[in-house]
Design brief:
alpha/beta; four-stranded parallel beta sheet; 7 helices; 4 strands; globular
């Protein structure tokens, strides 16, 4: 019997499985305010989602020195953590996401996630949506180089034994 044409589907998390844009924007805005900066442009924030945090911030405030970027990144992480600790957090799965995961799983296709989120944040998101244990591989920005570097996808393929011709990456950006 030959191997099925598709063996592994790797999903991005934010913007693909989970609608987290409001939380990301709120955390960016809180970070900017900590440093006394004017609120970031919401559309500019949406365009950088998916990149590693420090790269995203550097693109949003190119005039900031590296120390300022690092302070903004720390303030963002703190605000993001606080927002995720709230019981009223609203980061729903996109319509049809769960059904798509279930259909792929039923077809015997391995599932994975490759995200710029840290492992702790990804596990919290998956747990909140009852998706813990559904994915054969979890690749996060704190354990591999972030997008657009292919390291996370290469790690997912190596971990699952899927070759490049049998793997698909599903995301919401060109990264």
């Amino acid at each position: 019997m030959s191997e099925p044409p598709l063996r592994l589907v790797v999903f991005d998390c934010d913007g693909t499985l989970v609608d987290s844009q409001h939380t990301i924007l709120a955390a960016m805005t809180a970070a900017w305010r900590v440093l006394g900066l004017p609120d970031p442009d919401p559309e500019a924030v949406r365009r950088i989602v998916g990149l590693p945090l420090e790269v995203s911030i550097a693109r949003l405030v190119p005039d900031q020195p590296q120390a300022g970027v690092a302070r903004l990144a720390d303030a963002y992480r703190h605000a993001f953590f606080e927002l995720h600790a709230r019981p009223d957090l609203d980061e729903p799965l996109f319509p049809g996401a769960l059904e798509a995961l279930e259909a792929l799983d039923a077809a015997g296709i391995l599932l994975g996630v490759a995200t710029g989120k840290g492992r702790r944040g990804l596990e919290a998101t998956l747990g909140r949506h009852g998706l813990t244990g559904r994915f054969a591989t979890l690749q996060t920005g704190d354990r591999a180089r972030g997008k657009p570097d292919p390291e996370m996808l290469l790690n997912a393929m190596a971990e699952t034994g899927a070759g490049a011709t049998h793997t698909v990456m599903v995301g919401d950006t060109a990264y």
